[in-house]
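Example with several molecule types.
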Amino acid sequence: MNTNSVHDQKKDVMVGIVKSASLHVVFHSTYLLDGQPYEGDHIFSPSSQERLFVPQDGQASFTLKKVKIGIGFHWEREEEQTFCGALLLTNEEGMVRAINVVPVETYLTSVISSEMSANASLELLKAHAVISRSWLLVMMNHRQQMSARREAFHEQLGESSVIRWYDSEAHTRFDVCADDHCQRYQGITRQSNPQVVKAIEATWGQVLTYDGRLCDARFSKCCGGMTEVFESCWEKVSHPYLVAKPDPYCHTSDSRILSQVLNNYDQETVDFYHWTVHYTSDELAELIHRKSGIDFGRIINLIPVERGLSDRIIMLKIVGEKSTITVGKELEIRKWLSESHLYSSAFTVEKTADGFTLHGKGWGHGVGLCQIGAAVMGDQGIPYRDILSFYYPNSHLMTIEELINEK
Ligand SMILES: [Zn+2]
Ligand SMILES: [Zn+2]
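Resulting structure tokens for the full complex:
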């Protein structure tokens, strides 16, 4: 990371909102495009010229009509959304792309408000604010340093093995998108949570760093009692702040605490700390065939070949009548063994009379902060600094300003 790119990040984040053949915008006060004032309703068609509409006062906002949200999910729908900050229109594959150019802290207030429940503790929200800010700045870096851009999808196919892992794909013309691919962002459409505003203010500009660089601050729902190392789930790079360690906090089924971190939480609690899934032999054979595209025939055995330090299976040997394949890493295993995603790959296999029972623990990859554990810590009044240093040992909390001055 060079000093300039960190400096740029003190400015604004560019959020890709919507792309369509024509765009209906309502400016609620005066915006300027090349000295030309715009107000009220406007319909824009694609143009080869980039157009930047700059608000003339700090309270200005604009509304985009018909924004598609939840693209590809069962709850996909169109909404009207309102944003503050500037509007940039670019041409993307012959369509108009709306990009919201907005201060980093304003963006964070919006995304954390929609992600976290209103009853989350202030310390949990502060910890999340620091992680989200660190994540955002890493994303902004990726776009600015295209050479360092990560590949989105990694695959190693052998004669009898399939190893895949996934990283988030970097965008090119903007830093992050507004859909679930990055983090859902709805501008100021909904009121922000006053506790989140407090958490953002209390942690203003703070990020997690290691050795003078921003941390890749991963997090998941529930580690299941032990956090996992980065290289068990992604590429073979070790980050000294993403280590495996016992987590005494996340063993809870307290619905008051779970509701702080689970979106659309319903009272029929699933125990994420310990869970069980059962498949008959026929169900499992059909499922794995459909999800992997490989016909194993009848499944004879599932053999964990390699486990990470949290017991998450990294490599699983699937022994079938027609073929035997070893699959990895954890996310690919979870995809093959469930209609959606198995909660985690930290499971043991029990052969039963009619099939297989998987006894598992945790939800997600388990790397970095454990959201349920962090919610318990926050509920116990443990300060966010301690929550962060517990889940990201060896990391340092500093402001972007301090990070720049250290260079
Ligand atoms: Zn995205
Ligand atoms: Zn945990």
